Amino acid sequence: MEVYLAILVGIFFTVSIYLLLSKYVIRVLLGVAVLGNAVNLLIFTAGRLTREVPPIIPAGLQVPVDPTANPLPQALILTAIVISFSFFAFLLVLGYRSFQDLHTDDTDSMRFAEPVDEPAPPRGY
Amino acid sequence: MNTIIFRTVAPYLTALMVVFSVFILLRGHNDPGGGFIGGLIAASAFAIYGIANGVAPVRRALYFHPITLAGFGLFLAACAGLPSILAGVPFLTGLWVFPTVFGVELALSTPLFFDIGVYFVVVGSITAIALGLEDRMEN
Amino acid sequence: MAGASSGHVDPTGILVEANLHLADYIIVAPVVVPVLFGALLLMLRGKTRWHGQIAILAMALLALSTGLLLQRVSAEGPVTMTMGRWLPPFGISFSVDIAGALLAFVSSLIALTGAVYAASTTTTLERRYGFYPFFMLMMAGVSGAFLTGDIFNLYVWFEVLLISSFGMIVLGSEQRQLDGTMKYAFLNLVATTLFLIATGLLYGLLGTLNMADIWQKLNASGDPGSAARAGPVTTIAILYLLAFSMKAAAFPLNFWLPASYHTPKFLVSALFAGLLTKVGVYSLLRVLLMLFAQERLVLADTIAWVAAFTMLAGVFGALAQSEIRRILGYLVISGIGTMMAGLAVGSLTAITGLMVYAVHSMIVMTALYLAAGIMARLSQTSSLSASGGLYAASPWLAAAFLILAFSVSGLPPTSGFWGKFVLVRASVESGAWWLAFVILLSGLLTTIAIFRVWIFAFWRGGPQDTPDGAEAWKVEPLEKAYRQGAFLALGALVLLTLAIGLMPEALLSTSADAARGLLYPGDYIGSVFGGGQ
C-alpha cells in the first residue's frame, strides 16, 4: 500500500513542479495547491498505514490492545492543511490584485520591482 | 446567483448554520467537531448571506469587523494557557472544573476556551477573506 | 465526558510531575507576550491612536523576558518546558539554550528599536491596515522559532512569521510592492514546503519530531539500523540545507531577496533584513550543525562553496546597483555568506564567530535600512545618482551612517570587526585559507560598495551634475516627532554596534558558550529528558 501511495506522491510532485515552472501566475497557483496535497500525502504515507483501527484506548485500559493507526501524521497534516490553506488564500488574493493593478499574469513582464532599463550606478561626480 | 428563492432562503440557512456551528464547536472535545470546523461552517454561513444579500448587510449584521473577531479569538486562545500559571503546571495544560448548575454537571475546561478562541479566529479570518473577495466581485 | 469519570487512568509516566514556579514561564513569555499584544491590537484596529505606545510597551516586555531568559540560561544551562504536561518526546517542548536565547534577545532589542521608529513614522492608514498586529505576530514567530525544541513546531513558527511578513511587505499595495511580494511569497512558500517534506521524511524514518530525541536516535552508538539509513538521512540533511539556505537567501537561491526587500516601507525592510534571514541561519545551525552533525561533515565542502559564492554574489550585486536599498539587500546576502562560511568550517571558533557575526549583522543591517529610510525622507529619493548633500542637511546622520559603514565592512572599532576576525582565524586554523581569503575579499568589496553610498549621498554637495563646492543641496526638513523617534532608534543601534566593537568580551564569551552548546548538546538533551521539568 505504501508503495502505491509513494508513486501517487511522485505523480503529484511531478504535476506541481511542472505547474510551478510556468511563467503564468494562475498556473503557479494551481501548482501550489497540488504541492500542498503532495506534501500532505507524503507525511501520511511516512507515518505508515494501518486501516480501520482508530487510535482509541478502550475504557479501563492504559494502552490500546492491538496496534492502531498512527494519529500523529493526521495532526501534522491538519496543521499543514490549515497553513497551506491560508497561504493559498493569501496568494489567490495577491494574484488577483496583481492582475488588476499590474494588468498582467505573465511573470516575465512583471518588472516593476526590478525595472529592465535601470541606469548604471554613478561612477564619479 | 441572486434569485429570489436564494435570497429568501439565505437568512434562515445562515441562522441554521450558525447554530449548527456552535453545536459542532461544543461537541468537539470528545466527538468529531471542534473550533476549526465549527468556525468554517459559521464563516460559510456568512459567505452565503453575503452572496445572497450583498456584503454591506453582512458587515452590519456582524457589527464587529471580522478581523476584530479574529483578534478576540487569538486573545482568548492565548489566555486559555494562562490559568496553568496558577496551577503550577506547564503552559497550555488542560485544566478542568465540574460545577453543578441546576443539577447538571458541566465540564468546563481550558481546552474549551482554547477551542472557542480557534472558532473565532477561523470565523473572523475566513469571513474577512470571503467578504473581501465578494466585495471585488460586486465591483 | 473526560475528567471526573476518567479518574482510573494512571497519569504517572506520561505527565510532567514537577511543580513549576512563576519564573519558569519566562520560557514561553517571549511567544505569549507578542501574541497577546498582537491580538489586542487586532481588536483595537479601529482605534489607532495608542497603537505605537502599546507596541513599544509590548516590545519592551518582550526584550525584558528574553533578557531574563538569556541570563537564566547562561547561569543554569538549557531549560525546557513541555506544553500541556505531556512528557517529551510526546509533548511539544520549548527548549532554550544559549544560542536560541541570545538570538531571541538580540531580535527583541531590534524589534524594540523598530517599535520606537514605527511610533513616529507610521501613518494612520498603515495602522488601520494592521501594521502593528502583523509586527507583533511576526515577533511571536521569530521568538518561537528561536526557542522551540520541536522540529514541526519550528515549521509552524516559520509559517507564523511568514504569513505576518506577507501582510507587512504588501502594506501599501504599490505596483512594485505587489511585484516584489509575488516573488517573496512564492519562493518562501517553496522553501517552507521543502522544510515540511524533509520533516515528513524524517518522521517516517525516526518516528519522532522532538529535536533532542532526534539527536539521540541519530547519534545512538551501536544501533544496527544506522548504517542502513545513512543514505536517507543524508538526503534529508540536503533537503534541510536547501530549505534553510533558500530562507536565508544563500546563493544560488538568493534572487527573491533583492527582488523584494527594497519594495515595502523602510521599517519593514529593516525588520526583515535584521530578523528573517537570521532565522534561516539559526535553523541551519540548529538542524544541520546540532542534529545532523555527521551529515554536515559530508556537506562541508558544498556549504563552503555556497558560502563563498554567496559572499561574492552579494558584494558584486551591491556594486552593480544604483538604488540604496537594493545595495543594502545585496549586502544582507553577503553577510549570510559570511555566516555560512562559519557553518562550513564548523569548529568551535568558527561557530563562535558565526554567532558574533549573526548578532552584528542583525543590528547593523537593521540600522542601515533605518538610516536609508531617514535619507530617503530627506532627499525624497533612494537613487544614488539623485542623492547628495546630506552631510550639510544632517551631520549626525552622516556620522551614524559612517559608523555603520565601518561596521558592515568589518573594520574596527565596530562589532563587524570581531565577527570577521574570529571567522577568519577559524578558517585559517582549519586550513581553509581560500575561505579566509574570500571573507577578506568580500569585506574589501563591501567597503567599496558602502563607502560609495556614503560619498555620493553625504559627501558630495548635491545630486549628479551639481557643480562641486556649490551651495548645499536643499532637502526636505524633517518633522520634530519623526526626527526624535527615528534618531532615537538609529542612535541606539549605532551605539550598540560601537559598544560591541569596543567591549566585545561579553558577546564573545556568550557566543563561545552558545557554540559549545550547539556542538556538544549533552546539556540540551539532559534538560529535555532528565530531571523533572
3D architecture notes:
The complex is a heterotrimer of chains A (125), B (139) and C (533). Chain A is an all-alpha fold. Chain A contains 3 helices and no strands. Chain A has helices at 2-20, 25-46, 71-102. In chain B, 71% of the residues lie in helices and 6% in strands. In chain B, strands 1-4 form a two-stranded antiparallel sheet. A two-stranded antiparallel ribbon of chain B has the order 2-3. Chain B has one domain. In chain B, helix 1 (4-26) packs antiparallel against helix 2, helix 2 (35-53) packs across helix 3 (55-62) and helix 2 (35-53) runs parallel beside helix 6 (110-138). Chain B has helices at residues 4-26, 35-53, 55-62, 66-79, 83-87, 110-138; strands at residues 96-97, 100-101, 104-105, 108-109. With 533 residues, chain C is mainly α. Chain C has helices at 29-43, 51-76, 98-121, 124-129, 131-147, 151-169, 175-206, 211-219, 230-248, 256-260, 266-291, 293-320, 324-345, 348-379, 390-393, 395-409, 415-429, 433-459, 480-502, 505-519, 522-529, and strands at residues 79-82, 93-96. Chain C has a two-stranded antiparallel sheet with strand order 1-2. The longest helix of chain C has 32 residues, at 175-206. Chain C is globular. Mean pLDDT of chain C is 88; it is low at 1-7. Chains A and C meet through helix 2 and helix 3 of A and helix 6, helix 7 and helix 10 of C.
